[in-house]
Design goal:
Blueprint lengths: L1 H26 L4 H4 L13 H13 L25 H25 L9 H21 L7 H9 L5 H9 L1 H11 L1 H16 L4
Helix pairs in contact: 1-3, 1-4, 1-5, 4-5, 4-6, 5-9
Length: 204
């Protein structure tokens, strides 16, 4: 049952992530996501069959140590955003922020489970899975390479005269993302475990 729960949690988490992008853009003046029908928690408009179901299912069934997935990106028009060059960064950061809010809610439930009189082991195990997966989504998406959310934050921070950096990262984004997926897991994993332990009070 664990792979099924994992995929369900992944789909819900990436949907919330994408809806957060859409609502952030809408709040900043861009109705593109609303017109596309993407400001909904209904997973159907967001699901990418390959990224949301087939890839994570394949990785789980093959016992891979790398577990990831994605939903269809929510469309937005940066020229409609009221915040100027900071607009895309604010839209981008809304996604990982939504995952971290989920982490805080379920992480604190785990931490104070005794106080809350929660003794259900299955519930706590599912909550732990929710926390770990959402930390992973937030940390992975904050890596500053395109098309990940961290790249939009980086591009808003660097001076325009360094636009060659943006051009380079965009040109080689596929190679860079594959590198992160397959080779940077040893760097990302300690960050995930640290945040998990910090919030839940449980060490690995």
């Amino acid at each position: 049952m664990e792979p099924i729960f994992f995929i369900i949690i992944l789909i819900i988490s990436v949907v919330i992530h994408e809806v957060a992008h859409g609502y952030s853009a809408y709040a900043l003046g861009d109705p593109t996501a609303k017109h596309a029908g993407r400001l909904t928690l209904n997973p159907i408009p967001h699901i990418d069959i390959i990224g949301s179901i087939l890839v994570p299912a394949f990785l789980l069934l093959t016992g891979s140590s790398i577990l990831f997935g994605w939903a269809k990106p929510v469309p937005f028009n940066p020229y409609n955003l009221k915040a100027g060059k900071w607009g895309p960064a604010l839209v981008a950061i809304a996604g990982p922020a939504s995952n971290l809010i989920i982490v805080l809610v379920f992480g604190l439930v785990i931490r104070f489970s005794a106080v809350l009189n929660i003794a259900s082991t299955p519930f706590l195990e599912i909550s732990s899975m929710i926390v770990i997966l959402n930390i992973a989504l937030a940390v992975f998406n904050l890596i500053p390479i395109p098309p990940l959310d961290g790249s939009k934050i980086l591009f808003a921070l660097i001076p325009y005269k360094w636009h060659q950096v943006e051009e380079f990262l965009t040109r080689y984004q596929l190679v860079l993302v594959l590198f992160v997926i397959f080779f940077a897991i040893d760097i990302i994993s300690p960050v995930i475990t640290f945040i998990y332990s910090l919030i839940t009070g449980i060490g690995f």
